[in-house]
């Protein structure tokens, strides 16, 4: 296994002139015994090295004393004066470390000295280690606990460098002051933040793509739950909910109500995300369902009792069955232009509601939905066009049901108000069901 050390140099390198303990660079070499050593020299450090070879001399002596076989390379930055500038080091260190990592095989290691150099240098090395910590160790060196005697000895030349080496207390007895920096990988932390943002935007597929790069299986299962829930795949939802022990799904024991409510929740998410084209195009199924249930619950009319399936399996009005209820037949033939015994549409059901229902609020609400479906939904479904709230209002402004037109949030509110007329007594917190689920997912992200 090969070890490569990358080390900036600082004020206590190579050996402290105040306590005569070796600085971080020498101490890491002593205890990690690297095969290759790369020293990073700023302008000030390079001038000192050229003056008396203090860094290479002491390093050479340590390698000889400890019988360490290592190639030493100097990375000289003679024009680098602004050692406080983080931006300078980030680009330079990134390039150097990338090149060094390319030299590593599977079992090799790159050691970064994060105790020497300026604060900007240290910060850059911390971050680069965290961005891609594979095969990288960030090593810090503590100051000695004892023997911190103050001296004003200043090195003047090669003779003093030799003396300083002889005074190195670590040569007598070296207690290992190295420790490796271990904390959450920044890339992983950033991934978690991205996942959180995606789920708060109800984009479970995007969140799952990121989560799959990690090992949090419970998180992946939870995100699959959210993904399949938006797709209304309730069988898969139940499967994943059991796996993560999530028990906060509305109407979990009432199949028909659950299908309706989950569909309405998915509509509301489209509305929240401003996917208004998708929102409008998805209205027809729920409008038809609500109209049919309004008829059933408030007018005691089950339209299916007056229908039959045609050769394609589609429900159409049955002439024979309608004759059994002359009242309904009379409404249809008198009020529906050119009424035919054809497929049942919401446009037909609303006529029955208007003529046979005595609740004026219901009539006003269904009219509003029908206006949206007839004026906006068909355009969104059959034309290549854009849909905005302004356009929805413009298309419904002269409808007679709303003087200012109808916006998407009003459509959602209309649907919610109609649900109470089809015997869906919805607990208020059910409307926050997705957000409750998201909070549970967030706990799993940051566990």
In short:
The chain is of the alpha/beta class and 447 residues long.
Description:
The protein is an alpha/beta fold and 447 residues long. 54% of the residues lie in helices and 9% in strands. It contains 20 helices and 8 strands. The chain has helices spanning 24-32, 43-52, 54-65, 86-101, 119-131, 158-167, 186-200, 204-211, 217-230, 234-244, 255-272, 276-281, 283-299, 319-322, 326-335, 346-356, 360-382, 389-396, 408-419, 433-445, and strands at residues 3-8, 36-41, 71-76, 109-113, 136-141, 178-180, 307-309, 315-317. The protein has a 6-stranded mixed β-sheet. Helix 7 (186-200) runs antiparallel to helix 20 (433-445) and helix 9 (217-230) packs antiparallel against helix 20. The longest helix has 23 residues, at 360-382. The radius of gyration is 37 Å and the shape is rod-shaped. The two termini are 35 Å apart.
């Amino acid at each position: 296994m090969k070890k490569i050390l990358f080390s900036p140099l600082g004020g206590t390198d190579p050996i402290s002139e105040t306590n005569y303990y070796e600085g971080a660079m020498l101490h890491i070499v002593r205890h990690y015994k690297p095969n290759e050593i790369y020293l990073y020299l700023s302008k000030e450090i390079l001038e000192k090295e050229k003056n008396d070879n203090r860094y290479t001399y002491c390093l050479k002596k340590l390698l000889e004393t400890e019988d360490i076989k290592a190639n030493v390379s100097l990375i000289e930055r003679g024009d680098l004066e602004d050692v406080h500038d983080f931006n300078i080091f980030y680009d330079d260190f990134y390039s150097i470390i990338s090149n060094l990592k390319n030299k590593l095989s599977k079992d090799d290691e790159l050691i970064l000295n994060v105790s020497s150099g300026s604060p900007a240098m240290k910060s850059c090395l911390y971050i680069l280690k965290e961005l891609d910590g594979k095969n990288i160790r960030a090593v810090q060196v503590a100051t000695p606990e004892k023997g911190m005697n103050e001296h004003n000895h200043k090195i003047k030349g090669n003779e003093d460098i030799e003396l300083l080496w002889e005074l190195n207390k670590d040569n007598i007895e070296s207690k290992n002051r190295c420790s490796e920096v271990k904390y959450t990988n920044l890339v992983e932390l950033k991934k978690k933040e991205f996942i959180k943002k995606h789920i708060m935007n109800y984009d479970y597929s995007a969140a799952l793509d990121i989560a799959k790069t990690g090992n949090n299986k419970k998180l992946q299962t939870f995100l699959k739950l959210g993904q399949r829930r938006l797709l209304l795949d309730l069988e898969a939802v139940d499967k994943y909910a059991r796996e993560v022990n999530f028990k906060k799904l509305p109407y979990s024991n009432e199949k028909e109500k659950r299908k309706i409510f989950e569909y309405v929740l998915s509509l509301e998410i489209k509305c929240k995300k401003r996917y208004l084209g998708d929102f409008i195009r998805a209205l027809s199924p729920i409008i038809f369902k609500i109209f049919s249930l309004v008829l059933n619950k408030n007018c005691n009319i089950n339209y299916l009792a007056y229908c039959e399936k045609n050769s394609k399996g589609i429900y159409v009005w049955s002439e024979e069955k309608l004759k059994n209820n002359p009242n309904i037949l009379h409404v249809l033939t008198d009020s529906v232009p050119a009424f035919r015994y054809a497929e049942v549409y919401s446009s037909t059901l609303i006529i029955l509601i208007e003529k046979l229902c005595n609740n004026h609020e219901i009539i006003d609400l269904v009219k509003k939905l029908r206006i949206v479906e007839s004026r906006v939904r068909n355009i969104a479904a059959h034309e290549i066009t854009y849909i905005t709230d302004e356009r929805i209002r413009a298309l419904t402004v002269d409808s007679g049901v709303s003087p200012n037109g109808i916006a998407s949030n009003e459509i959602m509110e209309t649907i919610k108000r109609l649900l109470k007329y089809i015997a869906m007594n919805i607990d208020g917190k059910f409307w926050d069901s997705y957000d409750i689920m998201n909070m549970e997912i967030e706990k799993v992200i940051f566990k």
